[in-house]
Amino acid sequence: MPEAWPTHVNSTSSLSFSSVFFDTLTHFIIALFSCVFRFFSLLSLSEISQKCYLYFKSTVLS
Hints:
By secondary structure, this protein is mainly α. It is 87% helix and 0% strand. The chain crosses the membrane at residues 20-40. Keywords: Membrane, Transmembrane, Transmembrane helix.
């Protein structure tokens, strides 16, 4: 029993660290996507389509 104790402590501490890391990473990704979504919602859809059309016209139809 005493021999198994240090490995048990190490596995739980690394597990808690990874869970905290993934939790932070998930929150960061959600915040990033919400920022990107807010940015694109600020631009109107017609504005985006107009820019795409102008880009297409300048590259393909030149």
